[in-house]
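Q: Study each token:
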Amino acid sequence: MRIVIAGENAERAAEFGALLADFGLDWQIDWLPAGAPVEPAMPAFDVFVCGLRPGPIGGPELLARVAALYPQAVRILLLDQSPNEASVDIAQGLDGAHRVLGRPLDPAELVEAVESVIDLRQLLDNEALKRLLGRINSLPPPPRLYLQLTRLLRDPDANNAAIAQALSQDPAIAAKVLRLCNSAYFSGGREISDMRSAVVRLGHQALLRMVLTIEAFGGLKLGSGKAREEMQDRALRASNLARKLLPGPSAELAATASLLSEVGKLLPGVASAESEEEGPNYAEAGAYLMGLWGLPMPLVEAVAYQRRPSQLRSGGFWVTGAVHVATALVAGEEPDEDYLRSVGMLDKLPQWREMVEPSALDEVA
């Protein structure tokens, strides 16, 4: 396996080589100097690692270039422990990365990250899942407006008026945004009746999650409006909880992944988590669907492993762990205590239980 690390300290090459040898891995590591481009003529590589600003060429641009030229390569983004970068740069980097690691890069974490992504690909590349989705005549469409707004919010010149205008292009979604904006989840006391005020009240990230919820569940075929409302209620509550369990940009990833944790139930013939022997369960099917939509790999991974986070090779508590805890607690289930103990977070479980919001449907009833 060949790994290319861009813009980092090449003086650590010997250290990396020795530590990788300790793992019994015959991996080759090449260090790409700061400012060097990714070219089609480069020797093929399996893993690409860079920070947000590895040189004159930004990290998000490098990752996008790698995705286009070497689509099978695992792409890893490095962030400082206390990042001071613009949120737009972070969002672009997260979209192009399979995994996120802290700087300075730790060889052991690199090994875990690469093997975890490989495991995920193998999990989703199973014949039963492919056969199931192949029998479905019409898969749920990608969240078009969510993806459009995501691109718009990366524009530093975008303002709330432009965002409101984009929302207003879809009257059905705009009406649902206004309805949810005035619901028990988001209401600030004064009724909101126009899109620009809704954007201001919600904030950009909450607005993105709301639009994603509406689009993802809009085509839900569950037989009754009540079932759809219950699933949307769980999604919103889990999202609100998950974003409180992680710091920084990771909080928004956890919130978004939690919104989509049950999206696999959109697909007919998907087994419940309790009957996995009957076929692919909703977590794997949902992750596969999100991959088809082109959503970021950390979201796909979190949804895929939400029921069994201990199967991840990563030793820390990140997006998947937060989604696991949030979705379990909102569903009235117990999180995997052995997993939480292994990542040093079990003592936080009583506090997290207290943070679960009551269902808005119960309040209405």
